[in-house]
Amino acid sequence: MKLWIYPLMVVFAASCYGTLSTMVKLAIRDGYTASEAIASQYIMGFLLALVIYLLTQRKLPRLHGGFKIILLAGIFTATTGIVYGQALIYLPASLAVVMLFQFTWVGTLIDCILRKRLPKRPEVISLIILFIGTILAAGVLDVDLSGIDWRGWVYGFAAAVSFSFNMNVNTKQVEGMNTTTRLLFVSFIAAIMIAIFQTPEIVWNGKLFMEPLFFYGLALGLLGIIVPIYFFVIAVPKVGGAMSSILSAMELPVAVVVSVIVLSEALSGLQIVGIVVILLGMFVPTLASISKSKKQQATLGK
């Protein structure tokens, strides 16, 4: 059972990300802009992290080294949201999701470069399966690609690269810093980035603290900042950057299912097949890794 805990934490964190697009769409329906929704997510995320820190820690937060890691984690957390929001301006939602999901192979590529290794066979098989599943699940086969602004492709791929680097940074542990303190610093840096590039005026004009944006911000901050960062910080160093990128593909099936349930969006047979294919692609390297670990334990036990 212990072998499954950390991969499941990555899957759960990615699943939380899958709910965000639906909540942003709900906020837009209520008259807010996507920028306001994203700003509320990061600002409320930091405030929630601050409350958690004050309730659980009895000392002032300090950086015990590792400032570069924390800074990069905060920057990449914010830039992923910023550039993905820009991609949604120029791309259909389904195509924007496909571009974001290039992080599955980009993350694996980054991990291979940094570790100076070739991709493992289960990783390659998984990435091929995930690519096919992503195309089907996102409904891209029904999208007209003519006339799409080139900036959409750039922003979409930039979101994938940013998410991949964020995943890789999360493989780095900071000695002497617990998860709660790291969550506080990362969310603070991300909130500053968002305040610079998004709409910070929702704070001082009081809009953030009025219904329903306040509740959207709470939900987005919890599921888009607190839970993912907390779980990724704990699990990604154990699972590895490449494996975590693959397991994070769970975000797409969750995004599709939640949009169907909450927004009553249509779900085609091909999308259902795509979701099943993605789940299959996720578990190929996971099962291979767990099987290898069991064999190693059995060998050591002899």
Automatic annotation (TrEMBL):
Cell location: Endomembrane system
Primary site of residence: membrane
Source species, domain of life: Bacteria
Annotated TM spans: 37-55, 67-84, 90-112, 124-141, 153-171, 183-201, 213-234, 246-264, 270-290
Membrane protein topology class: Multi-pass membrane protein
GO cellular component, one term: membrane
Keyword Nucleus: no
Entry-linked InterPro entries: AA-Vitamin_Transporters, EamA_dom, EmrE-like
Coiled coil regions in record: none
Pfam families the UniProt entry points to: EamA (PF00892)
Sorted UniProt keywords: Membrane, Transmembrane, Transmembrane helix
Keyword Membrane: yes
Domain EamA per the UniProt entry, residue ranges: 8-137, 151-284
Family per record: Belongs to the EamA transporter family.
Protein name: DMT family transporter
Native organism taxonomy: Bacteria, Bacillati, Bacillota, Bacilli, Bacillales
